[in-house]
Design goal:
By secondary structure, this protein is an alpha/beta fold. It has 2 domains: about 1-70, no CATH class; about 85-329, TIM Barrel. The protein is built from 10 helices and 11 strands. The strands form 3 sheets. The protein has a 6-stranded parallel sheet. It has a 3-stranded parallel sheet with strand order 2-1-3, covered by helices on one side.
């Protein structure tokens, strides 16, 4: 079979509010599966598209645990520079499919089986990335595994010395880690945690079936900051049941966190579930979303970033971030 892969700016996204040039790692894993099974596979370009049997623009849903690691050279990983990377070259990987909570009402991971790769296969992939000169890897599993798998993985990163050769980031749920886990993450080479907070209002968290208490988020952000882990927090505005004050509380929490350096970076989007009515305050909620991004221009926030500059990589990272913010205007 002749297959053409055409990933786009949404192929690795869980929400479509903002386009992002993120390495489509799941598509790349499925692409490599087809290649290893004898298909004639092309990535991004092919001569004679009229002879292609299949064009793929999003993951097909092949059995996750049967997928090999992607061939990053074939899938041109170096062309993807978005994804909260600080150090380049960088890439995404995926150690699990789905989310071990899997109950958030708005999420594409809702109800999906949670499948986790073996630590051996993940370590082999990380070693291959290091050989390519990759400096940072972000794991885009719906939620990074916790418990024994997490502890064993971190210990392997430390014992093999890979924690000194590459830095890591991942998606994580509030309330999933204890004090020792934060320390272990830092030792294992983790740099950044992406937290999905969604709202500071407990009624909204309950309606979304988040399974967390807001107080857990406050504690985890404090601990991440204490152990030198970069917290990136995602929130949403535009819930039909929230009023102006509810939205303002979420914005104020993000603002306080960013200006006191407990939240290093944040992203905001609009809650969009087709079967529900839109918020009557959607215009105001859109302004709250935009105000989150304006915090990056606040002199108090910028001063924290300036104080943390230690190398040229830091300067390049902030310059890339400001370019993205400028394009949002």
């Amino acid at each position: 079979m002749r297959i053409l892969y055409l990933p786009n700016e949404y192929s690795q996204q869980r929400q479509r509010d903002v386009k992002a040039n993120i390495y489509p790692v799941l598509m790349a894993m499925e692409c490599e599966w087809h290649r290893q099974n004898g298909d004639d596979v092309y990535w991004m370009t092919v001569h004679g598209e009229d002879t292609v049997n299949k064009i793929i623009t999003e993951p097909e849903g092949l059995p996750f645990l049967n997928l090999p690691a992607p061939d990053r050279i074939f899938t041109q990983y170096q062309d993807y520079t978005s994804g909260n990377y600080k150090y380049l070259p960088a890439t995404h990987m995926q150690v699990a499919d789905g989310c071990w909570h899997g109950k958030c009402s708005f999420c594409v991971e809702n109800g999906k089986p949670y499948q986790v790769r073996s630590i051996d296969s993940v370590m082999a992939e990380i070693k291959d990335c290091v050989k390519l000169g990759i400096k940072e890897i972000f794991d885009d599993s719906g939620t990074f595994p916790v418990g024994d798998w997490f502890k064993d993985f971190c210990q392997r990163m430390i014992s093999t010395g890979l924690n000194k050769k590459v830095v890591l980031g991942c998606n994580m749920r509030f309330g999933a880690l204890d004090l020792e886990d934060f320390d272990l993450m830092k030792q294992a080479g983790f740099r950044m945690i992406l937290w999905g907070l969604e709202s500071v209002n407990q009624d909204t968290l309950d309606r979304l079936s988040k399974g967390i208490r807001f107080e857990q988020a406050v504690v985890d952000l404090e601990l991440a900051n204490r152990y030198g882990l970069w917290s990136h927090v995602a929130v949403m505005f535009g819930y039909p049941w929230e009023d102006y004050e509810d939205s303002r509380r979420t914005y104020d929490f993000i603002k306080q966190g960013m200006l006191t350096n407990k939240i290093k970076t944040a992203q905001a989007s609009i809650y969009d579930v087709p079967e529900l009515d839109v918020s009557p305050l959607l215009f105001e909620d859109s302004k709250f979303r935009d105000k989150v991004y304006k915090l990056y221009h606040d002199p108090r926030y910028l001063w924290h970033r300036v104080k943390e500059i230690k190398a040229w990589d830091d300067i390049e990272y902030y310059l890339r971030g400001f370019k993205k913010l400028w394009r949002r205007k």
